[in-house]
Design brief:
By secondary structure, the protein is α/β, with parallel strands linked by helices. Helix content is 28%, strand content 28%. It has a single domain, classed as 4-Layer Sandwich (Nitrilase/N-carbamoyl-D-aminoacid amidohydrolase), CATH 3.60.110.10. The protein has helices spanning 12-29, 53-67, 120-123, 154-160, 177-191, 238-244, 250-254; strands at 2-8, 33-38, 77-86, 89-98, 102-108, 134-136, 139-143, 165-170, 194-200, 213-215, 221-224, 231-235.
Length: 258
Amino acid sequence: MRATVCELPYRPALLEPAWESLAAHVRAERSELVLLPEFAFVEPVWESAPFDPQRWAAAEALSDAWTARLHELGATWVVGARPVTVDGRHYNEGFAWSAQGGYQPLRRKFHLPDEPGGWEATWFERGDAEFARFSAGPLAFGLSICTELWALDTYAGYAALGLEAILSPRATAAATTAKWLAMGTVAAVRTGAYSLSSNRVDTGAGTYGGAGWAISPDGALLAQTSENRPFCTVDVNPAMAAGARSTYPRYVFARPAP
């Protein structure tokens, strides 16, 4: 499967041309799956507290409008995370959109920081504690939304599920890119799956640092986005992931207990 990771700005004046460029890239590379950043199209409401119903409603409406445009990318599958309200409760919801099936909820973010600049537990309810297996055509994947990449206890479960990729929409700072890349590598090596991530980027303020990545099941950095290369497409080979699960260090943890 051809998969594209990216970095995108959320500010409208920058997002529109970036979106057109992403669509052109996806079509030129014949990408089948596009991974978007966390809350790709809206302002980072979590940067301030308290919760503001009007700002939330605006973010949700804008996400609705952009979700209706996902077909413009020309990909078979698009995966991301966006704000949703369900029964009056506010969530960060991972989703998969497909050309045939439209919008499909996946899981809602469970691990939520709550600190200056990242008041997520103030803005979102805790979602799904289960890290399940999802499918995008032939690709079996798990969804770890941003902070959830640090949930090391999920990797044994992911390995047991036989996943071929871990998809991670992010909204992370430029100053912390090295740490996040290290964790993406751990995710790949421990599970024997590809690690794919896309990040927000804020060229003006420099808060969000881009650096989307594609990492092989053995931890090799296949591609990383940058200001000069905001979109990267790689071949994700399910057979390679299946083979990796039987090699070190994965097989050590797959052995039955004595």
